[in-house]
Amino acid sequence: MYLVARFLTGIATGQTVVAMPVYFAEIASPSSRGLMAGAHGSFINVGYAISNWVGYGCFLLGRFSFLRVLAGSAVVLGTKKPCRSCVDFTINPMTHKVASLIKS
Asked: What span, in angstroms and rounded, lies between the C-alpha atoms of 56 and 48?
């Protein structure tokens, strides 16, 4: 079942990689059409290179270091607003009143 899911995911990813530059070329203005269509492939390659270098760095750091890198990158890159809302919730006394109103 896992192989079937991987196969379907691969087909969907392949279709996305092919379709997105065409879509970008259709919606972009003529002056930026080439940049928009070409940037898609470039960003895919840059992301692939970054993921390979992170994997290589985790290999050099040792066992289970990938978990630390994964957690650190998630905190730095993906949770800017949730962390801010958590800080606001703990510092701002007004948010506790709002939370008690929501619960009731």
From this structure: 12
Q: Which positions ≥6 away from 30 have C-beta within 8 Å? A: none
Q: Could you give the CA distance from residue 63 to residue 58 in angstroms, rounded to a whole number?
A: 8
Q: What is the Cα gyration radius of the chain?
A: 21
- The pLDDT tens digits for 39-85 are 888 888 888 888 888 777 777 777 666 667 776 676 666 655 555 55
- DSSP string of 13-37, one letter each residue: HHHHHHHHHHHHHHHS-TTTHHHHH
For residue 54, give both structure tokens: 């992170």
* Contact present, 37 and 24 (Cβ < 8 Å): yes
State the pTM of this model. Answer: 0.52
**Which candidate, 9, 61, 19, places its Cα nearest to that of 40?**
19
Residue pair 89/99 in contact (Cβ under 8 Å)? The answer is yes
